């Protein structure tokens, strides 16, 4: 925590304008206003990452007003222009109520779309700009605020905005966001840089990585506004339920648990559902089906088996997960074929486009075309979500699932695909083929 800051004055101003700070905002204020012994800001850049709708906007009100009262020039942007515009409306109302004497006569506020700005008599200004290289160009600034940083997928705006601070005696960049994905290149870069750059203060309120999505303790960690914002917990419960019903828990992860995800595309199976399918020990496999998968890079091969258990559930287990550069198919092929024979595998499913070289080692190999695979994906998802799929020794699948997404197929079903081209998901693909070959699994109906 910073030893010297203007946090008390910041908090007093917030209270005076009718927006007293929550405890988490008081913490953030200490970093935003931290000072070096010479009086300049301790951190030239401050990043605040917290779950959506916890008061990031109300934290900005005292920040912007306090800087303008000191004659500072403030520039504000976001990928979604409605965010700074909504803030602008609240800011203008607050200034007109509490600091009307500070405004420059009739030209003190401009409400025109694309030209929104506020001007104080002492030279303090606030303006909204587009998040583009052209939008950042213009007059010099003392403070640049970037809202929803997770949405920025290139550095063009920042590259243009930073020079506007070069003439300021005490410049500062402030970033606001919730968690991002692998596409959030600017936020991810800032997060990495904060580990070693003493000019960056990075503050993150997020659910602990090991917590399940339904763990309320994690909700509280990422949402410090709970207890201060009426109905916040009920709102989180509604969002958890609604995102779960449509298979988009990645949205809940980023927006409300403030945790990074690999993709915002719909997951094949969410983490909580998959974890609930785990068992300590399954029955001995009887006449299992096997699925195999070879990554197009040739660097990874996986095999999984699935079988019907006595209680009607489908058991699933990974029996091979091999990586090399590249994997020697001629060497592992006979070994996998022997393993399949010893297990009594009735069929070995494979993709004719990627797995044919490996499949030739099996006598009972069955090519699974794209339409059949789409049906297998549906069976896999239905069995997992319906509690009919159980697994042990399948950690390779658990590792692959966060990197696996659904893609619509022409048949109306989904297909499991990579969330990133450079991340193999062979264990998941092999498992889906194995489950799809278990008699009667694919035929089980689903209700939408």
Structure keywords:
448 residues, alpha/beta, Rossmann fold, Nucleotidyltransferase, domain 5, 3 domains, eight-stranded mixed β-sheet, six-stranded mixed β-sheet, 16 helices, 35% helix, disordered C terminus
Summarize the structure in words.
It is a single chain. α1 crosses α3. The protein is built from 16 helices and 16 strands. The protein folds into three domains: 198 residues, Rossmann fold, CATH 3.40.50; 49 residues, no CATH class; 163 residues, Nucleotidyltransferase, domain 5, CATH 3.30.420. The C terminus is likely disordered. The chain starts with 6 loop residues before the first helix and ends in a 12-residue tail after the last helix. It has 448 residues and is α/β, with parallel strands linked by helices. It has an eight-stranded mixed β-sheet with strand order 3-4-5-2-6-7-1-8, sandwiched between helices. A six-stranded mixed β-sheet has the order 13-12-9-10-11-14. A two-stranded antiparallel ribbon has the order 15-16.
């Amino acid at each position: 925590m910073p030893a010297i800051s203007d946090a008390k004055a910041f908090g007093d101003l917030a209270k005076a304008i009718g927006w007293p700070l929550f405890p988490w905002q008081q913490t953030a204020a200490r970093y935003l206003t931290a000072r070096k012994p010479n009086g300049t800001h301790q951190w030239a850049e401050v990043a605040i990452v917290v779950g959506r709708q916890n008061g990031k906007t109300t934290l900005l009100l005292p920040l912007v007003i306090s800087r303008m009262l000191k004659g500072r020039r403030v520039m504000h942007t976001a990928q979604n222009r409605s965010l700074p515009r909504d803030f602008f409306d609240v800011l203008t109302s607050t200034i007109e109520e509490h600091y009307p004497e500070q405004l420059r006569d009739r030209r003190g506020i401009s409400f025109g779309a694309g030209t929104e700005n506020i001007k104080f008599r002492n030279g303090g200004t606030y303006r909204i700009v587009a998040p583009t290289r052209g939008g950042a160009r213009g007059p010099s600034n003392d403070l640049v605020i970037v809202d929803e940083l997770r949405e920025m997928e290139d550095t063009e705006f920042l590259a243009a905005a930073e020079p506007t601070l070069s003439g300021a005696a005490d410049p500062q960049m402030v970033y606001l966001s919730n968690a991002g994905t692998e596409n959030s290149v600017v936020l991810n870069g800032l997060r990495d840089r904060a580990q070693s750059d003493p000019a960056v203060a990075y503050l993150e309120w997020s659910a602990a990585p090991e917590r399940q999505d339904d763990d309320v303790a994690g909700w509280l960690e990422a949402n410090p506004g709970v207890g201060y914002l009426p109905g916040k917990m009920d709102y989180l419960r509604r969002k958890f339920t609604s995102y779960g019903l449509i298979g988009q828990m990645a949205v809940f992860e980023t927006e409300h648990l403030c945790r990074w995800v690999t993709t915002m595309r719909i997951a094949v199976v969410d983490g909580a559902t998959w974890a609930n399918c785990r068992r300590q020990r399954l029955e001995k496999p009887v006449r299992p089906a096997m699925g195999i998968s070879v990554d197009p890079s040739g660097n990874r091969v996986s095999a999984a088996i699935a079988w019907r258990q006595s209680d009607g559930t489908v058991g699933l287990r990974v029996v091979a997960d091999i990586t090399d550069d590249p994997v020697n198919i001629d060497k592992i092929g006979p070994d996998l074929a022997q393993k399949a024979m010893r297990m009594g595998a009735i069929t070995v499913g494979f993709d004719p486009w990627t797995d044919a070289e490996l499949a030739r080692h099996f006598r009972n190999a069955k090519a699974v075309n794209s339409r059949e695979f789409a049906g297998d994906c549906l069976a896999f998802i239905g069995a997992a979500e319906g509690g009919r799929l159980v697994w042990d020794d399948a950690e390779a699948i658990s590792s692959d699932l966060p990197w696996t997404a659904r893609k619509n197929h022409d048949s109306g079903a989904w297909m499991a695909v990579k969330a990133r081209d450079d991340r193999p998901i062979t264990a998941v693909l092999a498992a889906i083929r194995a489950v799809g070959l278990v008699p009667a699994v694919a035929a089980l109906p689903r209700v939408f």
